[in-house]
């Protein structure tokens, strides 16, 4: 998320926007070796308010929205989930974005440290 915040700031003058997203839990062939019993155990462990598995199409929806919607032209440095900009995270909630994930100063520091580590 912090990279999206800083990249969006750095590339805004070039018309490039960068956002981050969470597609949700998607039921695909990746789970083919996980038994139904194990999936049910994980679901029970997650609790009754855990979101249901998404189809691949449902899981792709937020990515498609961010890539193709003119409604988001010029919108960058944000976090999206379930085809919406994420709300601020509340303790105990499974959704939302933490304030520290959007911190511009932390984003700039991460970018600088990453450049140093890469020798850029």
In short:
The chain has helices at residues 2-11, 36-46, 56-68, 104-118; strands at 20-22, 79-81, 84-85. The chain is mainly α and 120 residues long.
* Biggest pleated-sheet summary: 3 strands, mixed
pLDDT averaged over residues:
93
Number of helices: 4
The class by helix and strand makeup works out as: mainly alpha
Instruction: Give the neighbour order of strands across the main sheet.
Output: 1-2-3
* Beta content: 5-15%
Count of discrete structural domains = 1
**Which series of helices and strands comes N to C?**
HEHHEEH
Q: How many angstroms separate the termini?
A: 21 Å
Q: What is the β-strand count? A: 3
Helix % is 40-55%
- What's the Cα radius of gyration? 17 Å
User: Would you identify the regions where 5 or more consecutive residues have pLDDT less than 50?
Assistant: none
- Gross morphology is globular
Family: Belongs to the short-chain dehydrogenases/reductases (SDR) family.
InterPro entries: NAD(P)-bd_dom_sf (IPR036291)
Keywords: Oxidoreductase
Organism: Phytohabitans suffuscus
Plain-language structure description:
The protein has helices spanning 2-11, 36-46, 56-68, 104-118; strands at residues 20-22, 79-81, 84-85. The chain is mostly helical. It has a three-stranded mixed β-sheet with strand order 1-2-3, with no helix packed on it. Helix 1 (2-11) crosses helix 4 (104-118). It starts with a helix and ends with a helix. Belongs to the short-chain dehydrogenases/reductases (SDR) family. InterPro entries: NAD(P)-bd_dom_sf.
